[in-house]
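Review form for a predicted model. The reviewer records the input and the model, then writes brief findings.
Reviewer: anonymous (R2)
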Amino acid sequence: MSTNISSHKVLPTAATIQYKKVTSDDFEFGKFEEGLVELVADESGYIGDDLLNKINFDKSDTTIINAGPGQGKTTAAYKIVDHYAKQDDYVVIVVSPFKKLVKRDYDHLEKQPYKVANYEMLETIEPSNITDSKVHIVTINTLLLNPGEDNFLMTKPKRDYIKGIREYCLEKKKKAVFIFDEIHAGLHTFQQKYIFNLLTWKKYTHKCFVLSATFTESAIVATEYIGLLTDDQFQIFDAPRQKLPAQADLHLYITSEDYSVNDLTLLRPLAGIVEKEAKAGNRVHIITAYREFALRIADKRSKSALSKAINEHLNYQIQTGTEDTQFNTGQSNIGTTFSTGVSIDLGQDSLVIIMPSGKIKGGGSYRIGGIFTNGASAVVQAVARLRGKGSIYIFLPYDEGLIKPTYTNQIEPPNDFLEARFTGKKHHYTYDQQLTLLKDFYLQQRKDIEMEIIVQDFENWRKDRQRYLNMKATLYYPEFKQFLLEDADSYLSQWYPSFGKDYSPYVLWAAFNDQFVNATLKCVHWIDKKIESLKLTKANLIHELTSHYGGVDRMIEIVAGKTIYEAFKALLNALVSKKNDEDEYVKIELTYEGKPYPDSSKIPVPVFQAIVRILYQMISESTDTITSEGYLLDRMVAAKFKEDDGQTLEDIDKEYLSLYELREQMLLFARSNDNKLNSAFINDEMLKDLLRIADKLQTGDPLIRRLIFSFVRLVKPKQAEARAFVFKGVATPEFKKEFKEKFFRELSNTFFTIKFQKKGTKKVTEVRRMPTESQFIKRFPS
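Model under review:
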């Protein structure tokens, strides 16, 4: 086993389940003859009967049904379809966000005694043959004639089909009833340019039903657009969230660091779960955030314990949207397409959710969500797939903080197991606060942008403020509602842990505060990689490193086919973790000269230097030790070779090419000046170039950044001064003198053999030869 696991039983805090309650206050132009109508669930937790009794089927309005997962929304929707389809005056259009939900709805409704059409029939049937159907099942894209990102126009059969239904309604004097189910999953389609296609139905619409378990501010804007079809008349039905009678056991597995498709080590306990559930006769459904992850864990060629367990114990199918298959209740499913709109309710199932792992940098650091991009609402939907008793296992990576308050007293026996690891505290926001947060952000962004425009062109703004702010004919800053529809969910889920930022804080808070209607937290588990020790000493460093890597032959295997830097990264990774025969990794606890280095980013410089020097000796077959001067010349030759060969230069290559050109200038200067040099050679423009190069090498070249090789370094105060000089030309005489001298010494010692003379002048006695070929771009033999 390559992991250690500790388990803690949990007694979650009984709490009111929080959700976005839709009210009349959310609608700017809505008309409400009745206030919010609360639905009462029956003994089984279903709201269908109460809903159907309270709906006014004859009234033309947009009816909002806000009910939790597992409360019977979809079943009630089918009964609404049946009510209207059996009457001669109506045509029913069921609108779903995904093809798989269209298939689900069609499979259910085609058994009814009236004609039902699925828009996918257009692949084999002319539109005119199905426009007279009583029930039409389409995607939101099809209804709004949104062709998707890759096409300019919706296909002609689909356009003819949608137009044909309207013409049928006109000719036969029918009214349309729309059922928008799972509205939260189709918001990307409600772009302003396609809303006008929706409005072509206004003349023919009797009633619209909008259903979701996870309404958001974005979904409310989409619902307002739908409400235009019924003259802004609305009715709201709300089902307070409550725990369903049958509860699944929820287990959280927190990994001490990120997992990835290249390192499944911390998911090792899932192999045991798969085997245990399969032996109990249960199907195991695994939801992953990304397609690549689903394919990786089910890879039949993999040596990992998890992949072996899946392929040995499960009869499964992959579901990632690229396969021509639907969710199959009779076997296990692994993938990304069943986190919403699917009910797993046969009673012999368990559900596994592998949350996103790994962060992207920029603006703020956040996890890439995949199918969980919408944050908390996507998590709620995924957990709710399992209905009835069973087990839900969520794997989630460690995050630095917890949403307040404390979690200590809910763990049995009470202890600070979580607080000791999650040291940060994050403020909790409720759904009622979302709109305020969004308004504040939007208004501040708009104000900042408009002020920047005004400052840049103040004179024109002062002369004619109104005309200037209106700008050119059709150029307007996006309105708040457009921001809500297009960006609100992303903003909230990427900035606020309470709404899903980084996922782990929200999952922990929701589980400990009993927020999932279908599951109750039973146990939380902490997973660590096993640790082995590596003791290195200055006296025997090369021998100890070679032994750790498994000898020279094993090192040759590790670096095969790689460049120097690629090989350096591979050996560095092998220094801090070791791969076993099951493609899993053991952590290495490093000590050097008796001092521990638990953080891989702070490995001592002599160890870095030893690794690189070993690599240079391996690739050049030389016993010489590579120096900083040799490294710089090597990189300069590599950059020049790439340029001459027509290869694309990376940013760091361009800096080394600039150094190559400076060498040529310096050499010409020396030859024209009796081989004498001094710092006066470096003028202000050249100093700017050198400061830029030093900054880029210090941040962009890992071997210089890690102090394995050296160039003029810019400490933080000097770094700020340097950037001010480079970009604004502002610097003190003392600063310029100091760095002209530093660069002069650095370049002189790198490019030449020097003899010192009086008054800072140096005599060039020999020009260092450039390497005939760059070791840096050579590859180790495969």
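Findings: The mean pLDDT is 88.
Further findings: The first helix runs from residue 48 to 54.
Recommendation: see findings above.
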